[in-house]
Write a structure and sequence with these properties.
It is a single chain. The protein has 469 residues and is of the alpha/beta class. The chain folds into two domains: 62 residues, Metallocarboxypeptidase-like (Alpha-Beta Plaits, 2-Layer Sandwich), CATH 3.30.70; 333 residues, Aminopeptidase (3-Layer(aba) Sandwich), CATH 3.40.630. The protein contains 15 helices and 14 strands. The strands form three sheets. It has an eight-stranded mixed beta sheet with strand order 5-6-8-7-11-14-12-13, with helices on both faces. A four-stranded antiparallel beta sheet has the order 2-3-1-4, covered by helices on one side. α4 packs antiparallel against α6 and α8 packs across α15. It is found in: Secreted. Belongs to the peptidase M14 family. Its cofactor is Zn(2+). This is Carboxypeptidase M14A.
C-alpha cells in the first residue's frame, strides 16, 4: 500500500509544477479546481488514481498563525481581508477575546503583517510539516505495514487464495500494525470488508448512499438492540485521524470479549461509517492534503462543506456563500449527496439513542446547538454525558478536552449534522467531537498519536454508553 499522495508520480508532477511555466498551478485558494481539471464533473471521479491528476498543491512557506482578537476593530480587519488574502481558517472562533488559527499563503504574508494584528506563528512552513507526515508514513509503510502483510502471507500461505485479502486485513498481526500509521482509501475499504467478513456473521456491511463521484459511504452494522447508535468520521476530508479513530472503536466493539461490551451489543445496534466523505478524502491523499469539502464543482472552485449543507437552519450564520470558501454551504440544503444520504439513512432508524460526528482538531466534546446561542431543553443531560466522556478520556493519557454547546465552545455554525440529527431525527443525544490536538500539529497529527487517540476516545465512548438513559 502506498498512499497516492506519497507516490512517485505525485513527486514528478510536483517537480513539473514547480517550473516557472507552471507557476499558475498553485492557486492562492486551495479549494480551486486543478488547472487541468475537466469541465465534465464526472471527470473528477478518477482521483483515486494518482496518475489521473497532474497537479499537487504545494504549501511551501505557507504559515499557520494564531491571531488574538481583542477588539471589534481586530475582528473587522480580519474578516475584511480574509478573502483577498486567501485565508484558510484552521479554527473558526471569530469572537472577541479569543484566538483563531489561520493559514496564510506565502504570497499574502507581507500584506498580512501590514494589518498589524496581534499574532504568533504556530507553523513556519506548512509544506515542511506535510513532508514530515509523508516521510514518517513512508517509513511506517515500508518497515511496519508491508513487513506485517508479507509476514502474514508467508506464515499462513494466504497469497492467491480466495478470501486471502480479508484474511490478511483481519489477522491479529495486521490489527496490531494497522493503527501505527495512515492508510490509503483503497486499504481502508479492504480493512472494513475484512472486519465484516471476519465477524462470523455478527456484522453486516451497508452504505448510506453514494458520494458525488459514486463511491459508497460504506459502513458496518452490528448489535441486536432496539436502540441505535450512529457515528462516523471524515465528514471533513483532511481530518485523517478521525478515520483511524472510528476504526479503532469498531475493533473495540466488534472484537473484544469484554462483558460490558457484550452488554452494549445487546442493548444497541451500531451503525458506523469510517469515511463519510470518500471523494474529498481521496483528494486529500492525492492532490491537496488540506482539502476539506466534497468534490462537487462550483464554478472554478471545488467542493461544498458537507457539514454546512444539512437542512437545519441552513445559512443562518457560521457558513459562507462564497464557493471558494472552506465553509461554503452550497446553493441549497442537501445539495450534497453525502449529507442528503446520511440524513435519509438516519431518518430510517426508529430510535436513535446517540449520534456522534467525529472531527479534528481542538480537543472538544460538544452538543447542540451550533446555529444559536440558545441551548436545547435537554442540554444539561447531553452536556452531563459530555462531561463524563472527557473525564474518562483524560484518565487514559492525560489529554484534556473542553465540553459544552457548539455555539459557545467553538463557534457559530449552521446547517450542521448535529443540529439536524437532534432537531429533525430526534436523537436523544447528538454530539460533535474534535479530537487531538490543539494546533501544534493540527490536521497532520503524527502517526504515533493515532493509537493513543483511539484509546482515549474509546474510553469516552464507553462512558457515554454506560450513562445514556
Amino acid at each position: 500500500m502506498k498512499i497516492s499522495l506519497f507516490s512517485l508520480s505525485a513527486v514528478i508532477a510536483l517537480t513539473i509544477a514547480l517550473s516557472p511555466s507552471f507557476s499558475a498551478a498553485f492557486p492562492t485558494n486551495i479549494n480551486r479546481r486543478p488547472h487541468n481539471a475537466s469541465p465534465n464533473p464526472n471527470a473528477i471521479a478518477d482521483t483515486s488514481n494518482p496518475r489521473s491528476l497532474a497537479v499537487v498543491t504545494s504549501f511551501k512557506n505557507h504559515r499557520v498563525v494564531r491571531i488574538n482578537i481583542s477588539t471589534k476593530a481586530d475582528l473587522k480587519v480580519l474578516t475584511d481581508n480574509e478573502q483577498d488574502l486567501g485565508f484558510d481558517y484552521f479554527t473558526h472562533d471569530k469572537g472577541i477575546g479569543g484566538a483563531i488559527d489561520v493559514r496564510v499563503p506565502a504570497q499574502s504574508f507581507k500584506t498580512f503583517q501590514g494589518l498589524k494584528l496581534n499574532y504568533t506563528t504556530v507553523v513556519e512552513d506548512l509544506q515542511a510539516m506535510i513532508d514530515e507526515e509523508q516521510r514518517t508514513n513512508e517509513v511506517y509503510e515500508e518497515q511496519v505495514w508491508r513487513h506485517t502483510v508479507n509476514q502474514i502471507k508467508n506464515t499462513h500461505s494466504v497469497q492467491g487464495r480466495e478470501g486471502g485479502e480479508n484474511q490478511i486485513f483481519a489477522s491479529p498481526l495486521a490489527a496490531s500494525a494497522w493503527f501505527k500509521g495512515y492508510h490509503s482509501y483503497a486499504d481502508h475499504v479492504k480493512w472494513l470488508n475484512a472486519q465484516i467478513a471476519g465477524s462470523k456473521g455478527k456484522a453486516k456491511g451497508f452504505s448510506a448512499g453514494k458520494s458525488f463521484e459514486g463511491r459508497p459511504q460504506a459502513g458496518i452494522r452490528f448489535g441486536t438492540g432496539g436502540k441505535h447508535i450512529v457515528f462516523h468520521g471524515t465528514q471533513h476530508a483532511r481530518e485523517w485521524v478521525t478515520t483511524m479513530t472510528v476504526e479503532y472503536m469498531i475493533t473495540q466493539l466488534l472484537n473484544t470479549k469484554n462483558k460490558k461490551v457484550a452488554g452494549y451489543l445487546k442493548k444497541y445496534t451500531f451503525h458506523i461509517i469510517p469515511i463519510m466523505n470518500p471523494d474529498g478524502f481521496v483528494v486529500s491523499q492525492t492532490t491537496n492534503r488540506l482539502h476539506r469539502k466534497n468534490t462537487q464543482p462550483n464554478g472554478q472552485c471545488l467542493g461544498t462543506d458537507i457539514n454546512r449543507n444539512w437542512d437545519s437552519h441552513f445559512g443562518e450564520g457560521g457558513s459562507s456563500t462564497d464557493p471558494c470558501a472552506i465553509d461554503y454551504m452550497g446553493p441549497r440544503p442537501f445539495s450534497t449527496p453525502e449529507a442528503s444520504n446520511m440524513a435519509r439513512y438516519l431518518r430510517s432508524l426508529p430510535n436513535v439513542a446517540a449520534y456522534l460526528d467525529i472531527h479534528s482538531f481542538s480537543q472538544l466534546w460538544m452538543v447542540p446547538f451550533g446555529y444559536t446561542s440558545t441551548r436545547p431543553g435537554t442540554y444539561a443531560y447531553m452536556d452531563g454525558l459530555a462531561a463524563k466522556a472527557v473525564t474518562a478520556l483524560e484518565k487514559v493519557h492525560g489529554t484534556r478536552f473542553r465540553h459544552g454547546d457548539i455555539f459557545h465552545t467553538i463557534y457559530q455554525s449552521s446547517g450542521t449534522s448535529v443540529d439536524y440529527v437532534y432537531e429533525v431525527v430526534k436523537a436523544k443525544v447528538a454530539m460533535a467531537v474534535e479530537l487531538r490536538d490543539t494546533g501544534r500539529n493540527g490536521f497532520m497529527l503524527p502517526p504515533d498519536q493515532i493509537l493513543p487517540t483511539g484509546e482515549e476516545t474509546w474510553a469516552a465512548m464507553a462512558a457515554i454508553l454506560d450513562n445514556i438513559k
